[in-house]
Specification:
Layout lengths: L1 E6 L5 E8 L4 E6 L14 H5 L2 E6 L15 H14 L5 E6 L3 H10 L4 E7 L7 H6 L2 H6 L1
Parallel strand pairs: 3-4, 3-5, 5-6
Antiparallel strand pairs: 1-2, 2-4
Helix pairs in contact: 2-3
Length: 143
Amino acid sequence: MENNYINLSDKRKLGYSEYGRKEGYPIIYCHGSQSSRLEMHYDLSFALSNNLRIISIDRPGHGDSDFNPNGTIESFANDTNQLVKNLNITEFSVLGMSAGAPFAMGIAYYLNQKSKKLGIVSGFAPLNNETLKALNKDIRLIL
C-alpha cells in the first residue's frame, strides 16, 4: 500500500492509497461512511492475481483529504478527475461500498468517458422518512 496525496486546483489536498499492481487495471474505490482510504485492508491477493490497481480515495473531510465546504457528489467526481489525470489514467472502473455508493455512481456518471464499469457493494439506500424508520437509533443519530 502506498499513501499519497495531490493538491487540487482549489488548493485542497486529496488523499489516496494504492493497492495491488502499479501496472494493473485501475479501479477507483469509494469507501463507506465514517471510514477512509484505509478501509481497503482486505486480503488483496485477488488484486494481484487479477492484475488490478486499486486506488482508494479519501472523500473530502475524511482521512488525509481536506474538507470541501461546498462539496457535492459532482465536485467529488471533479476531484477524482484531477487525480486520474495526475496519475495518467485514461480508463478505469469504479467500486463503491455502502455510503461510498452515491459517490461511485457520481464518478461513473460525470466521468462516463473514462469510467467503464461500476460496482456497488451494500449500497446506501436513499435517505427519506420511510428508510429512516428502518434504521436503529444510533445510525439515525450518525446520519
